[in-house]
Amino acid sequence: MKRKLLVLLAVPLLTPVLAGCGGEKAGEDDDPNKANLHIGTLDKGIGTTWLTEAASMFEELYKDSEDFQKGRKGVKVHVTGSTQYDGDYIARSTLNKDIYFTEGIPYIEVAKKGKFLPLTETMNEVLSSYGETRSIKDKIDPAFLDYINVDGELYAIPFYDSFYGLVYDVNLFNEKSLYIDADGGFTNKEGNLSLGADNVAGTLDDGLPSTFEEFEELMYEMRNSNITPFITSTAGIEYTANYLYNFVANLEGREQMMLNMTLNGTATDLIDVDNEGKVTPLAATQISDDNGYMLTKQQGKYHALKFVEDVLLSKAENRVNDPSHTVAQQTFVNSKQISEKPIAMIVEGSWWENEARNAISNYEKVYKEKTNFAIMPLPFIDKDFAAARNYKQTCLSLSQSFGVVSKNTQQEKLAREFMKFLHTDKMMSKFTADTSITRPLNYEISEEDQANLSTYARSLIDLKKNSDIVYPYSSNTIVNNNLDVFNAYHFIWNTRIGGTNGNVYKHPFMYFGSSKISDPSAEDYFNGQYEYISSRWKGLVK
């Protein structure tokens, strides 16, 4: 396999069973007097409202245009939202719509099959007709550009950021005085708050835990106040796995985390850990295709496991589970009213507020109370560790989501123009204001849109601004040839515990949360990762 075959190390978000693989009918409701553009979008966490509103604005902007189809004036944009428009559908179906916005695309594979229209020219064009001085390409992180470059052509535009973390109920934190004060106690939002993970006064994370110890104290305070710390989904295993994947990134930092994708560079924080938990630092190690298994010894992986063992799952009453992510959302939103032990936090993705919009709206209607949520920055190991990192977070954007133009489009000029329009700063700013989700491009939120942002959206924007973002892509041949080992979060969490014939686990929650394991330990899990990956390394396809 050639080096240019790239793979995104991320799990497809909420991917359903394929609903259909046949072609689509497009054009039955076309306006015979206008140029018609058909767009399909995956109707899940992002929804369709943002796109239908953008379509209306585009139609108004070009209502007098005769440039897109001979003999026709104006444009009509048709938006179809469906849960079937996932990555599998894009890969296996005839693409009869002009544009698709979706997630979980096996992008390189599909692009090489010629299903997408090359967008290189469009993405290189300065958006001067919209009053801007940059191109779409100028707004994209170089790591992302490398991924979407297939044999010298760009076939897709990154769609949305996928950060995983703990979303907390701001109102509950205030009412129950769950904010940490400057002296280490607890207070409400009006108290003398600690500086939070960013170590800056007056920001949204003031009073939130910045270290493992503070997070553990918060969990204790919640239980002592008859509050359930957090809720997860039993079916949405990727939610908690990716939250912990992000945890590792925050502890490793951008440079060391990227070694897991490139298998090339110097690992500076490898450790050995014995059964008693004694940590021994290892010498700096040059990582290559031959010894990439050594990355299982990164300190961030061990400390993330200790956080799970000692803090997150140290008590059974720390969390509750619901069968699906949507049921968990509803339970979380309503818990203050329906439970004797309200739930303070939920493990979620960055699309959470947009996806839970109906649950939030129903709560506010029934209980006549305005909700208020925010995403919580990840805690550091301790104060010294935070200072050494200059209080900078590292976040994974697991954005296996793209906008593409079908090679079958009969409206190429119109499709290209619509893509340029959508990727102006104005429209991306509006997208964030409408959905409370950021996009993996560089753009500013307008003052008008800032005024309409929810607390959750502002916390997400702040988190991104205060973080080094890692896009987990790989151009390494071994990675691309062995997806069972490297795809999604597997390389981070695969382990075998109990020797050669022991049990294999792919998720710390499965191990530490299992009632069948009498004495789970971070040390066993961590050392099992090395044993499992190193034993398989020689057999990997080169």
Give me some keywords for this one.
single chain; about 550 residues; alpha/beta; D-Maltodextrin-Binding Protein, domain 2; 2 domains; five-stranded mixed beta sheet; 23 helices; globular; disordered N terminus
Walk me through the structure.
There is one protein chain. Strand 2 (35-42), helix 1 and strand 3 (75-82) form a beta-alpha-beta unit. Helix 1 runs antiparallel to helix 16 (425-435). The termini are close together. Residues 1-23 have low confidence and may be disordered. The strands form 9 sheets. A 5-stranded mixed β-sheet has the order 3-2-4-20-7, covered by helices on one side. Strands 16-11-17-8-18 form a 5-stranded mixed β-sheet. Helix content is 37%, strand content 17%. The longest helix is centred in the middle third of the chain and has 16 residues, at 237-252. It is α/β, with parallel strands linked by helices and 542 residues long. The protein is globular. It contains 23 helices and 24 strands. The protein has 2 domains: 7-162 and 399-453, D-Maltodextrin-Binding Protein, domain 2 (3-Layer(aba) Sandwich); 163-396 and 463-542, Periplasmic binding protein-like II (D-Maltodextrin-Binding Protein, domain 2).
